[in-house]
Amino acid sequence: MAFAAFSSSTAPAAADTSRKKSPVALLLLLPGILYLVLFFLTPLISLLLTSLKAPSEFGDFGEFSYAFRWENYVDVVTAYWPHIMRSFGYAITATFFALIISYPLAYFIGVKARRWPLLQSLALVLIIAPFFISFLLRTLAWKQLFSDESFLVTSLKAISVLAPDAHVTGTAFSVIFGLTYNFIPFMTLPLYTTLERLDVRYLEAGSDLYASQFHVFRKVTIPLSMPGIVAGTLLTFIPAAGDYINASREFLGGTGTQMIGNVIEANFLVLQNYPAGAALSIILMTAILVIVSIYVKKSGTEELL
Amino acid sequence: MKLSIGKWVLPVYTALALLILMIPIGYTFVYSFNDSLKSNITWRGFTFDKWLNVCNVQNGAVCEAFGNSIFIAVVSTIVATTLGTMIAIAMVRYRFKFRSQLSLFLFLPMATPEVVLGAGLAAQFLSVGVPKDMTTIILAHTMFSISFVVVAVKARVATLDPALEEAGRDLYGSALQVFMRITFPLLLPGILAAALLSFALSFDDFIITNFNSGNVSTFPKYIWVSAARGIPAEANVVASAVFILALVIVVTVQVSGAARAKRLAKMN
To answer: CATH number of the domain that A151 lies in?
Structure first.
């Protein structure tokens, strides 16, 4: 739903000269900022401090004291390297598929359907409709549809597309499928907002200059829709990399598909190994920040943020 | 011939893609009518029973979770919408130092994976010694909603003509009067949209809630916990009912917005 965050960032801001300087501003800003400092910034600092804690010498299980045990990071990277790699592998693959699937969808709704505003709004309502029904139940619906006894899987086995002893759920395929499905609206909406504003006269100009349709698409449409592509891929990639619902064993995953989110959850809520969970969270956040800043720099859309 | 086929590729693709997106919603809805026993996996026949007796299953566990979710969403939406609207007005209307740093700071919670936000809060509550309950869930939901509210309301404040407020002041309206009679009514659609977004985010949040809920059940958490032993059809009933209600609200807002635009066009 963060699409609004990205799509409206290009909205014309009031000229700076029309803004007044006033102590009222401070009064308006302070409560909200204070709230975010207390419940967003300080938690990140306590996460960092927790990640360096060492087990209490005389304490009970699950008790830790402040220390500077940076070996925690070495420990979790060695123990959970496959999970870390899997998270980014799955998230990148799902983001790629979501982009490939969403682009033609957004193009049709935003450009081709302009003549039919009713069709446009109907399609948009359908795109956001999944937000109105529980994320967990939707994911479970796919699990049932992909289960071994389901119509889909038995038919695929009957025509020998799948081996008789094959499973769909619990595989990398079903986790990536779930991630792609769940985050497609996050990809489609920002793509739609940029494509909807695309001036088709640029495309006509390209054709007039004897560019092939493919050439116009590559040299005109894609560059003009870059803000939407960047916003959509970020909105898909960030939550997908940290997701632990799709990969969970009760949902679409199996023992071999656990992602970093699953391990953070297990360390915090089951194993009570808070330093390990905290260290993994810090690693996840840092990796995402690095990947995102490189990506934004490369795509030349820094002004978006 | 080739051309006419090409013309249909995109519309057919769009229809198919939208259809596939709707499959899990349809599945959830259809299985709310399943005459199921403990778990709702195989189809056992059509019944209205689950819709009529939603609260009867497992001593009302589904309804209790639903009630908690509504309460948490209402409280966190009120707090987040108030704080976020104040920030949005200040950011569009006033000049102050560190504006770009503030924008970045407000953007960060939206760019942080939920699992990190959840784990961070859990680590903080743990080190301060705060027990996890309803309050910690509300504190967490308010936190991640504020940034979204700021973005949604900011777009609305930016379209507001400052001349309207100036006119109010010229007519000797006090600062409070100008705000209550002019600024607030004009911002209301944006504030309501932000509140709806905040409510939806809170109601369906699982990842952050799971880290900070202790023994308190919310609707998504109930589904997560029951997934292992089977989710009763009553959960599908609640989800379907919420879906229909949300859809009605969205369509009403869209239609009334279109009607209002038409009225304004006529006046001009």
So the answer is: 1.10.3720.10
